[in-house]
Design brief:
alpha/beta, 7-stranded parallel β-sheet, 29% helix
């Protein structure tokens, strides 16, 4: 019955009937800037490896850029079986048209059944362009991935103001596509001895035919980067207001980390929404996460529960945040945080001996 239903849906494909059985394997589009791969790409390869094993299919990666051969080798070390490499001067900086041309050529030639990209500014732009041209469906900002017995991608993402999690399927077209938030999945340990195949892909492009030009790349030094932070000191409603966050900023500065906030704190205007961690904010995976004055609501926990170590400070001994914390301190944060800051300053300050 399922196969009959699938055949009927194929008729909706504008190009007529297509043999979907030709589509096999999972492809991760590796994002890089200035020759450095984004961590989300390796995280995606880690999760895609699990899905590929369930499908008994190869795991592929697509690397685009200029002078990016090393990234192709890295992709193999992080789990890719086959890497398609397009190395050209026209791909030095990201631009939608040349990147989408290469991406479309690789997808149409090698026919992966699933294509995954990071839900970054670049990934969202490229994935939308690709899905429109193929055409196929795209699930944006996914936080969970799985596959079913019919080889359908189950891409789940928060919906309806994070009150529920929606699982979206693309039954009619292939490849099935999804962008995935950074920090949700864990990369596999890098294996430099791992073997794989690198296939070079060329595309006939001339710089004069590309209508957009990158004149200069200006780094926004004030941009909040929670995704790559190794230490995060986050505050919630219990912090009491903007002045309370100054205590957290001092602790974060002492540890070389960054401050963050729960949705309750950002909705109250105490911190900008760029600092928000949670289902509708940023998903993080730091080595150390302080949850200070945060109760532990589900929408916050899903955005930070994969931190290596979680330290919670709350005066309510029954706060749900203690259920996931590695270490918990029950007390007044306005007394505890200055003590923590002072203790770290003493331990981290070099001792000068005469």
């Amino acid at each position: 019955m399922a196969e009959e239903r699938r055949r009927k849906m194929i008729g909706l494909q504008p190009e007529g009937e297509i043999d979907w059985s030709e589509y096999k394997g999972i492809m991760v589009v590796v994002e890089q800037r200035a020759g450095q791969a984004k961590p989300v790409s390796w995280q995606l390869l880690g999760e895609a490896k699990r899905l590929a094993q369930k499908l008994d299919a190869p795991l592929m990666a697509l690397v685009m850029g200029e002078g990016v051969r090393d990234i192709a080798d890295e992709a193999i070390g992080y789990g890719a079986d086959i890497v398609y490499l397009s190395d050209a001067p026209e791909l030095r900086d990201y631009r939608t048209r040349p990147y989408s041309r290469v991406c479309l050529k690789v997808i149409r030639t090698y026919k992966p059944e699933i294509v995954l990209m990071g839900a970054t500014y670049t990934g969202r732009d490229l994935a939308g362009a690709i899905a429109t041209h193929l055409p196929t469906g795209l699930t944006a900002d996914s936080t969970q991935l799985d596959v079913d017995d019919e080889r359908l991608l189950l891409a789940s993402r928060p919906a309806f103001s994070e009150k529920m999690l929606a699982t979206i399927l693309c039954k009619q077209f292939k490849p099935q596509m999804a962008t995935v938030r950074a920090g949700v999945f864990q990369a596999l340990p890098f294996d430099s001895a791992r073997a794989g195949e690198v296939v070079e892909v060329s595309e006939d492009m001339r710089e004069g035919d590309i209508v957009t030009k990158v004149l200069e790349f200006i780094q926004d030094t004030n941009r909040v980067n929670l995704e790559d932070a190794q230490v995060i000191v986050a505050g919630g409603r219990g912090v009491g207001g903007p002045d309370g966050f100054k205590l957290l900023e001092e602790l974060a500065r002492t540890l070389g980390g960054t401050v963050a906030a729960s949705r309750a704190a950002t909705d109250l205007g105490w911190m900008d929404h760029a600092y928000q961690v949670g289902q509708t904010g940023t998903t993080v995976r730091p080595k150390l996460y302080f949850a200070i004055g945060i109760s532990g609501a589900v929408q916050h926990v899903v955005g930070m529960q994969n931190s290596d170590y979680i330290i919670a400070v709350n005066k309510d001994a029954n706060a749900p945040i203690f259920q996931i914390a590695n270490y918990g301190i029950v007390g007044d944060l306005f007394e505890v945080v200055p003590l923590l800051t002072r203790a770290f300053q003493e331990r981290l300050t070099p001792v000068v001996t005469r």
